[in-house]
Amino acid sequence: MIRVVLAEWRKLRRPTLFLGTLGAALFFTGLTTTFLYLMIDSQRGNSDRGRQVSREVLNLAGGSVYGFASVGGLLGIIALCVFAAQTAQEYTYGTLRNLLVRQPGRVRLLLGKLIAMKIFALFLVLIAAIVSIGISYGLSTKAKVTTDLWFTSAGFHTIGQTLLNVTISVIYFGIVGMVLGLLSRSPISAISIGVLWMLIIENLIGAVKPVTLKWMPGNQLQTIAQGGSTEVSYSHALTLGSIYVLVGAVVAVVLFSRRDVAN
Amino acid sequence: MTTLAISVKDLSKKYETGFAVSHANFEVPLGTICGFVGPNGAGKTTTIRMLLGLISPTGGSAEILGESINHPEKYLSHVGAMIEGPAFYPALSGAENLKVLATMGGLPIERVDQLIKTVGLEGRGHSKYKTYSLGMKQRLGIAAALLPNPKILILDEPTNGLDPEGIQEVRDLLKRLASEGTTVFVSSHLLSELELISEYIVMLRKGEVVFAGTMETLLLQQQPVILVKTENSKDLEKIVAIAHADGHKATIRSEVAHIEGPADWAGTLNRKAFEAGITLTELAPQLPNLEETFFELTGDRT
Hints:
The complex is a heterodimer. By secondary structure, chain A is mostly helical. Chain A has one domain. In chain A, 75% of the residues lie in helices and 0% in strands. Chain A has helices spanning 2-12, 15-38, 55-59, 66-70, 72-92, 96-102, 106-140, 153-184, 187-208, 217-226, 234-258. Chain A is globular and about 60 Å long. The model of chain A has no long low-confidence stretch (mean pLDDT 88). Chain B folds into 2 domains: 4-220, P-loop containing nucleotide triphosphate hydrolases (Rossmann fold, 3-Layer(aba) Sandwich); 225-286, Alpha-Beta Plaits. In chain B, the strands form 3 sheets. In chain B, strands 6-7-8-3-9-10 form a 6-stranded mixed beta sheet, sandwiched between helices. In chain B, strands 2-1-4-5 form a 4-stranded antiparallel beta sheet, covered by helices on one side. Chain B is elongated.
């Protein structure tokens, strides 16, 4: 298994992929966190979907990671794209046959790839967290937000909890991407379907029938990153999100281990 | 300990459209070079994929180095393969692509530089794969197949895209590997090349094995041919008639009479043609070759 992880890491660490993905993650993290503080007094809101996050909320122990938690869903979408592309391209390049000749254990190959991509996602999340907290701290004075509670034991606990939630969310998004990659065997199709569903279709359906958001997979994963929302509780999102991901993963593993590799 | 590198018994792969491979039977002894030939769509690549555990057979069985193809993990560490041409990550260099496979297979990374030299890619190993010419890609594919220092090397059209010099290099490489004990199972459309290096031949037609055995046996099964050209092409019909009168099969293809018969009958034909007032411009007895035999057995003259 470790050999598969190391082999996959050779591909993931190439600068165009690693730095490109990191750049995208940091761009969204920076943008979201900056807006949160610079538009704190804006009538149009300073968070996603025009929500207003007040100074009082940011003054709390969890204020340092509010921006980071908000961007969790977008980090998840980035992970979905990377996992989907890295999985599906093995079919489009025809490289899967080479990999399977060197590692015939298909489930082992899949798990090794997943672990390598999880490590990649973990790097992404950690760096995004550091940058988001840094920006929050840097802009707190300008936004008249008090940071006294941010670095207390309660504050560090919230940072740890948020880091864990965002990591779970990002990895779940990634697994969804991997499943789509395995099912579609095309990076473009996998990414299109994933992004279209998570970012557009779910939101459209949710706008028409808000109650459906409680059952939508993308919304569950996003809610995990945020540690729960007013519409969906954290435990509901975690349970349902885990079920969705588990079912998808089982289907993908069964298909991958049995399907002929004919390209 | 088995003396067979590959043993295939009644191996079949059936799709909705029909059999891609139908009840194939053949054996390849260890340490030989075996040519695997057949027209396009004959089932060569499907057979190779089944041998490598990439697709599941719908019937029959096969063994590689004495291990069933149902357990590819038991033998693939001793097998190097290039299937349907080279396939690598375009954004990685040639060397990095090989390192991915070496890491995956737990093979020494030091072999990568050595193999880059062996296949003549020195100086370009660190260039991105997407900048490679077809010939360079093919060379990298051969290097990847050689990574595990294989006991069996399975190559699907290894000389595609190579220039004559490259083809000769590959031929020499395969001969050298065979002399060192590696079994080489190679499919190619370059039949003259295969004839030069192969001791064994497996010939497929429409998914069925039409011949499997030594090259010598194959060629001995075929009649020698005498090729005849005449000054006046209308006289070819008369030549065919002379051949038929002496009990030899004869046909005219591209203004050349092909007569099945022993080489020593050429003198008789020459004399009879002279007596009939026919001037021969060419009289060439030919031993059967793989190409002629291939066409004969597969019925493929496209």
